[in-house]
Design brief:
Length: 427
């Protein structure tokens, strides 16, 4: 039987990198991932814009743990709590979203305010000498906020979030700053980003790591998404640069990015034939403004390049023809649940937002060109893993390229090295 040390072959001098396919099928590996990755890393919880008003709450399941976050009526800050009554364990937040002044456990009617304090207990006087209402308050995981993105960790010894994000921070900054400033040009006074209402939620019968790979894999775009590329060509788009060029980067801690020229247009700041002709002057105005605001190098990166950012282990920010926040949670070795939400600048002009949302739905929406294709590809891989005589997956493309291209697998190897380091942590 393979030991942890045998699951990955990493021989840079031989330009060889491979991982054993049992990492995609083994219940034992799956259980160890929960312990050594999802119990120790920072995990994306949600975005602060999901609870804009005092009393607004959202509940989530994060790595198998029920959690909810709520905006305090006292302080305006966001509180994050484990969704379990401190009495006998029942969940107390029983809706996905809503607004509340307090939350009451339906089992024995213990009542908590939205700052987690226990404020009501039927027949409280019957409790004995141990009783201390303050000690029965709701409990919280560690939580930190970066540019509106909320992360939690269940590891009391985890490094701070900024250190954990490493090189991924720069790309989050580009997403937020570019979109904010583009909206401000047309009169938005709000600043910041928001997730719009509505969630694309679906399940994939495949291992969660396949979606980590797929989300930053430029190699598959040409063959898998040929229908979309033909759709663009029919509109007059020159798609040659969509299947070559660009760069793949290791951002540290298992994070990676695939970045390349965007032939499909970007509603933030680069016009394309998929948008209306009437929108061209305004989009080009945003483009020029961002170059002036942030300088030639950063401005062109914001406006003319697409990027798929993978934050280890299971957050992807697709800053492509729209800005999509994707998370995928493992349920079993061959099953994951996926959610996608659209991130937009607050106060964006309605017609420009409509272009952004249509662009998102065309490619990544439930009936778009990409998501069904990618799901089919990942499920096909999972089926193929049952041919157990073929044991290894090779991700050795582009070892000799400097810098690595977007179609190379340098940034995918970064993910797997992060995975392998954590899985071996106690060996």
């Amino acid at each position: 039987m393979l030991q942890i040390n045998d699951f990955v072959i990493d021989k840079t001098e031989e330009e060889l990198f491979a991982y054993h396919r049992s990492t995609m099928t083994s219940p034992e590996i799956f259980a160890l991932e929960q312990e050594r990755i999802f119990e120790t890393c920072w995990l994306y919880l949600g975005h602060e814009s999901e609870v804009p008003n005092p009393g607004d709450f959202v509940r989530r399941d994060i790595a198998g743990r029920p959690i909810f976050f709520v905006r305090s009526r006292k302080t305006g800050k966001i509180n994050v709590f484990y969704n379990t009554c401190t009495h006998r364990g029942a969940t107390i937040c029983r809706q996905d979203t809503g607004n509340a002044k307090s939350l009451q456990c339906f089992y024995h009617a213990w009542t908590f305010n939205i700052d987690g304090e226990l404020i009501g207990v039927p027949d409280e006087g019957s409790y004995g000498g141990f009783w201390d209402r303050k000690k029965m308050a709701l409990q919280s995981p560690r939580v930190e906020n970066y540019r509106g993105f909320l992360f939690v960790t269940f590891n009391p010894e985890a490094e701070d979030l900024i250190t954990y994000l490493a090189g991924a921070r720069e790309y989050i900054d580009d997403v937020v700053d570019g979109a904010e400033e583009g909206a401000r040009l047309f009169g938005s006074q709000e600043g910041g980003m928001e997730l719009i209402r509505g969630t694309h939620a679906y399940a994939v019968k495949a291992n969660w790591k396949l979606l980590a790979e797929n989300s930053v894999d430029d190699y598959h775009v040409g063959p898998t998404h040929e229908t979309y590329l033909q759709f663009l060509r029919n509109l007059g788009v020159q798609t040659g640069r969509a299947t070559k060029g660009g760069e793949g980067k290791d951002l540290g801690n298992g994070h990676g990015v695939m970045e390349k020229f965007a032939p499909w247009g970007r509603p933030i700041a680069q016009w394309g034939p998929v948008f209306s002709e009437a929108s061209k002057p305004d989009i080009e105005r945003i483009h020029d403004y961002l170059l002036e605001k942030f300088g030639e190098e950063r401005g062109r990166r914001m406006t003319e390049l697409s990027r798929n950012l993978l934050v280890f282990p299971n957050l992807v920010i697709n800053d492509i023809m729209a800005v999509t926040v994707r998370t995928f949670n493992p349920v079993a070795p061959d099953h994951m649940e996926v959610t996608q939400k659209e991130l937009v600048p607050k106060g964006e002009r309605p017609d420009l937002r409509a272009l952004r949302l249509d662009s998102f739905l065309t490619f990544l929406g439930p009936g778009g060109f990409a998501s069904p294709d990618d799901t089919e590809a990942m499920e096909s891989c999972q089926q193929g893993f049952q041919a157990k005589a073929v044991e290894w997956n090779y991700i050795a493309r582009g070892f000799h390229h400097h810098p690595p291209g977007a179609m190379d697998e340098h940034h995918i190897r970064a993910f797997w090295r992060g995975w392998y380091r954590r899985m071996r942590a106690e060996e």
